[in-house]
Specification:
Elements: E1 2-3, E2 6-7, E3 24-25, E4 28-34, E5 38-45, E6 49-53, E7 59-65, H1 66-71, E8 87-92, E9 96-107, E10 111-118, E11 135-137, H2 139-153, E12 161-164, E13 171-173, H3 180-189, E14 194-198, E15 206-210, E16 222-224, E17 229-237, E18 244-249, E19 259-263, H4 265-271, E20 276-281, H5 287-301, E21 305-312, E22 327-332, E23 337-342, E24 345-349, E25 354-359
Helix pairs in contact: 2-3
């Protein structure tokens, strides 16, 4: 019996604590095309692993028979019809679509392993105009202006739409030719925003910059032990704490740089010591801009940072009910927790048929 390339072997062998029978995966297909979806080829690939995330690109890994690539006229090395730089599209009936750019290859004797990254990389290696002076705007307005200047200075960004939440406190910043993906947008998002390039269909590559990209689904999506959750874990580190932060303008001489110090008294009392950190902020030119940055960092760094992960099976097509950026409810006896969780990253291993979500638990809002 086969369903979506899935073959059920034996009488349902159970591995580990899961009560779901292991399903070995057969080959699947992905669309590989030139940028803009020209010259589309349907290529067989091994069961892939992939991730979706906000504030940066997720990844996609799979293996392709090298002879298949040669048959389609795609070169794994050299500059003629190269595989790197082409676009890739793959869909799952419940986990959703994955689209991005092939950025790396590992060529063996018979097979080629490819790595692709989500369309957020269309903003990588794209710099902002460095001729602007200091300006005061909201983070969303600055994001749109920097993207406009980057496209005017170079090639098209190949996006279908741009949108941003332009309300909020004005920042005083000066662009210095930084990279959009890895520098500018990550810095603007640190003011309490999220960004992504949304691609739910092949015709959509929509840039979004908002305080919350997803939807609050804690009332409709409940992930619980014994039904959806195969395993849960938590990883934390004391040295991620900073409860006394000195923020300084990172583009000035340190002795004359504008700065601001802020402490979290509750964290200092709870942890019984002061964890001090000095953080330089690139592009910041005034104290009024440093202050909200320090407050935002202090809010996230005052206590040990813990990342929670949960392995989820697709019982009742639960994968179709949430996406990265959403807030869901989770009930875990091993964590002694029942309450909301932010889904920051989704990872899917098609060989194991298990999705892993990673994010933060909202203890203060838990029942």
């Amino acid at each position: 019996m086969a369903r979506y390339g899935t073959f059920l072997y034996g009488s349902g062998v159970v591995y580990g604590p899961s009560t779901v029978a292991y399903r070995a995966q057969g080959p699947t297909d992905a669309v590989i095309a030139l940028a803009g979806w020209g010259d589309q080829r349907l290529i067989p690939i091994t069961p892939p692993t992939m991730s979706w995330r906000t504030d940066g690109p997720g990844s996609f890994q799979a293996t392709i028979d090298s002879r298949t690539l040669h048959k389609h006229g795609l070169a794994v090395i050299g500059a003629t019809n190269p595989l790197k730089g082409r676009w890739l599209w793959w869909e799952h009936p419940t986990a959703g679509a994955w689209g991005g750019v092939i950025t790396a290859t590992d060529v063996g004797k018979w097979q080629t392993q490819i790595t692709a990254e989500q369309f957020a990389v269309l903003l990588r290696k794209r710099r902002t105009n460095s001729n602007y002076g200091a300006m005061s705007m909201s983070p969303g307005s600055l994001a749109l202006m920097f993207m406009t200047s980057a496209e005017r200075n170079g090639d098209t960004l190949m996006l279908t739409s741009w949108s941003a939440e332009e309300c909020g406190t004005a920042l005083n910043m000066q662009p210095r030719g930084g990279d959009l993906c890895d520098d500018i947008l990550s810095q603007l998002a640190s003011y309490g925003y999220q960004w992504r390039i949304k691609a739910t269909t092949m015709t959509e590559r929509a840039f979004e910059f908002r305080t919350r990209l997803g939807t609050d689904k804690r009332g409709s999506v409940m992930l619980s032990d014994g039904r959806h959750l195969v395993d849960v874990s938590s990883a934390g580190d004391l040295w991620t704490v900073a409860n006394s932060i000195l923020g300084v303008a990172g583009d000035s001489d340190f002795t004359s740089a504008t700065g601001y110090q802020l402490d979290d008294d509750r964290s200092i009392r709870t942890l019984r010591r002061r964890f001090e950190a000095t953080i330089p902020y690139t592009g910041v030119v005034t104290r009024s801009t440093i202050v909200p940055l320090v407050k935002q960092d202090l809010k996230t760094l005052a206590y040990p940072k813990e990342v929670y992960t949960a392995d989820i099976v697709d019982d009742d097509s639960i994968w179709a009910t949430y996406r990265e950026g959403d807030i869901v409810s989770i009930s875990s006896a091993s964590l002694n927790y029942q309450g909301p969780m932010d889904v920051d990253i989704r990872s899917l291993d098609m060989r194991q048929q298990v999705m892993t979500i990673a994010g933060k638990l909202r203890y203060r809002e838990a029942a």
